[in-house]
Amino acid sequence: MNYHVLTLFPDMIRDGFQTSITGRAVEKGILTLETINIRDFSVNKHNRVDDYPYGGGAGMVMQAEPVCLAYESVAAGLEKKPRVLYMSPQGKVFDQRMAEELAAEEELVFLCGHYEGIDERVLEEIVTDEVSIGDYVLTGGELPALVIMDAVSRLLGGVLHNEESAQFDSFHDNLLEYPQYSRPEEWRGKKVPPILLSGHHANVEKWRREQSLIRTRQRRPDLLERANLTKEDKKFLANLEEM
Length: 243
Ligand code: SAM
Hints:
- The protein is an alpha/beta fold.
- It contains nine helices and nine strands.
- The protein has helices at residues 10-17, 20-28, 64-75, 96-102, 120-126, 142-153, 201-219, 221-224, 231-242, and strands spanning 2-7, 32-37, 50-51, 61-62, 83-93, 107-111, 129-132, 186-187, 190-191.
- The strands form three sheets. A five-stranded parallel sheet has the order 2-1-6-5-7, with helices on both faces.
- Helix 3 runs parallel beside helix 5 and helix 7 packs across helix 9.
- S-adenosylmethionine binds at residues 87-90, 112-114, 116-117, 132-134, 136-141, 144.
- S-adenosylmethionine binds next to strand 5.
């Protein structure tokens, strides 16, 4: 997977991405990260990339030309037109399903806005997807790009140490994950559920599945409607309803 991030703050992207698990994936060569500073493509002698909005109003707008030139500098090195994700509070809300879909791409270009956003004309020209990370407004697209790159990266083979761990995470199959425990067996009077110490693999799996169902029903009942439930799952949930 190759990420290309068009941004006014490349350090923020590099510092955020090149630590911990994603940083290790870059070192291992599973991922590459290229940051492109939009300011390097300014067409203004003062190096500006923003200007006042036509029609008046508060704030500044990122101009079309530097954004387009920055994008073209990336596209020129690629064989086909890549997906270009504009980080925007007006976009489709990012979720695990979108992360899985994006993980199948070889190249992803992220476009990070600032100020009041970006001149609409260049968005129409280069953007394939507008993506939001939630219904709130941030100062820039860098954090959203990092969130998406992180969620996509951990789905790529070799990024996580334990390949299985992404498979049972929350939202996989539209169920929240079961509760997790580690040593010691007793902490401040609270004991680990005995079943987890039993060594009986099948019973542990059954307990975890049931905990996932209980949690999802309590915390995110909306997800259950889209979950892949077995006959046993449905029976278990029906019994809970009766209780
Ligand atoms: N005036 C814009 C509007 O109301 O739609 C908001 C601009 S916001 C202050 C500046 C930039 O932050 C946006 O261009 C976008 O790149 C990014 N941004 C802000 N909130 C976001 C969110 N929830 N998801 C993704 N990107 C976001």
